[in-house]
Write the structure tokens for this entry.
Amino acid sequence: MSMLRVNGGKPLSGRIAAVGNKNAVLPMIAAALLTDEDVRLSNVPNIDDVGVMLELAAALGVSVERDSAGRTVCLRAAAVGRGELPRDLCREIRAGILFAAPLLHRCGAAIMSPPGGDVIGRRRLDSHVYGLECLGATVEMEERFRFRAPVRMSGADIFLPEASVTATAQVLMGAVLSRGTTVIRNAATEPHISDLARMLGTMGARITGVDSNVLRIEGVDRLGGCTHRIVSDHTEAGSFLALAAATGGSVELTGVDPEHYRMTERVLARLGVGLEYGESSVRVREKSGRCVTGDLGSGIPVIDDGPWPQFPSDLMSVMIVLATQVSGTVLFFEKMYESRMYFVDRLVAMGANAVICDPHRVVVCGPSRLHGISLSSPDIRAGMALIGAALCADGESTIKNVELVDRGYECIDERLRLLGAEVERLDD
């Protein structure tokens, strides 16, 4: 078990490069099973979830070559020997379910245990099952999940029950080698879905409608290898922007697509924080006012989340921390997960003026003077938020279970030190 010791009160300032998108690389690793040729990925983040996903691929017979220093991975699925995933690895990561569609094409079957991942509320798999069944697979969801497609799957017109990122990736990978035409309606449109679609296109898939919520796929007989650079992670970058603003600093993220920050920019503006853009960079303005802008008629503003292009749920936690450091009152409405707000209890223990109204809503009135305490990270995003709270607090804080944060943020202690934070990693 790892922990961080943080001495707060120092603004984050400086420049760092954004890393590759966690939620893009995980399905891409699974997609490597759709061909027996080399798939080379660059800008791969050095995070624990990538390591687990690569272990799952290796357990299926995929040759894996990883250069962590160069952030590259080469995968060759020339001999996928089995369609069953190890139980212990399935329980470590939610994205393991994304091997289902590729294994159906390669082996005609896939067997796996229920996926693990963050405990932030119910995370349904209904859309995965529905989409694969529409393509012709059969699914049994018991103690172990069993997917079967003894003959080649066929295209279908599919309206997903929800705009799920992982379900869209799953059905997209199922459709590219299915016979005929597939239309995916109510598809997720996040940048990482578009990045996956472009990678599959490089492999020879025929996909139109990329960046929209209607994807049309003309099935092909085979896919080839590819070389692909992963898009930058707007969630990781947005987290650093929010925490820089919370500490009164100014951080610049390079290697980004400015178009990915438009909704984040609007939310930050409600909290009195401005952004500036370069051709491939985004930064917090040094002299942001850090004062809540009310609704028309002086109403308390509401910050809520939703499917892209709405405000990402994964940035809700760090924005709540930022709200504790700005002047004014704001209501946060978490619509997607019923357990994401529980970490706010830790902020209250640090001195935040916040009220948890119910599992989905929190009212924050700032600014609050936070003080250091001992904390435990409950999940990836809440863990990053608690680190941010410790950076804002007076005195020393200890954050335990940092390995949960390591699943989604690369070398978090080292990157924070580059920005002037006083952070030390300790192994328990």
Notes: Residues 117-122 have pLDDT under 50 and may be disordered. The CA atoms of residues 31 and 200 lie 8 Å apart. The chain has two domains: 2-19+232-427, 22-229. The longest strand covers residues 2-7.
